[in-house]
Amino acid sequence: MNHIRFACSALVAGTLLLGSGTAGAQSPVPDLDLSVPGADQCEVAPLSRDDLAAVSEDASTVSSPVIPLETPNTEAATPTPFVAPEGTAVSGEAAANVESIAVQYYACQNANDLLRTLALFTDRYLDQIVGQGDIEPEALATIGTPVPARLESEQLAIAVNGMIEIEPGMYGVDIVGLDHATNEEFTDYLIVIDQDGELRIDEVLRLST
Fold it and tell me: Into how many domains does the chain fold?
């Protein structure tokens, strides 16, 4: 069965392939209590194919904050580690709202709902994924075709391992998890920003598998 899996600016869903991004050698996933975001937690309204077409035409004009993020060099003989941005700890309602977006991201992957997953991204990130030719034409031709949710035994389980506010309206979220389909541990780093009053994911970096 094909699964959606976003990471490193890379997406695999059937014939849907995005270009590779950055990754590096990281520490093992911490020993945290992981939970499985259920498909019913994927609540964001899905994009339509018209939405995607509009993004590819218009999002290149949308500016986005510069993210002070150092990514590892995977081509080096000794890969450099990921360096997370600095910031302040987040708590209360702000933390709950940011965590909700992160949980939805994995819930939508467990639901195998690509259009809802894409709806969680900022215009800039959608432009990067959709508007720059990273999605193969044959994948676009079938996007929106219903795909069964992941089997219970194959779902992603995750935990938030840390969250900071990098600057007002911009957050860094460290996610650790386990892909039960492959039994592989993973660490993702999500950049979440406030876009027109709504929190959206502006970057997904896959740090380890």
Answer: 1
HSE toward the beta carbon, residue 13, CA cutoff 13 A: 32
Q: Is the dihedral of CA 98, 12, 38, 50 positive or negative?
A: positive
Condensed to tens digits (0 to 9), the pLDDT of residues 154-201 reads 999 999 999 999 999 999 999 999 999 999 999 999 999 999 999 999
Report the side by side order of strands in the sheet with 198-208. Answer: 88-89, 156-167, 170-179, 184-195, 198-208
- Cα separation, 39 vs 48, in Å, equals 19
Report d(CA 46, CA 167) in Å as an integer.
29
Q: What is the CATH number of the domain that holds 180?
A: 3.10.450.50
pTM: predicted TM-score of the whole model, two decimal places: 0.77
Domain limits at 202? 5-208
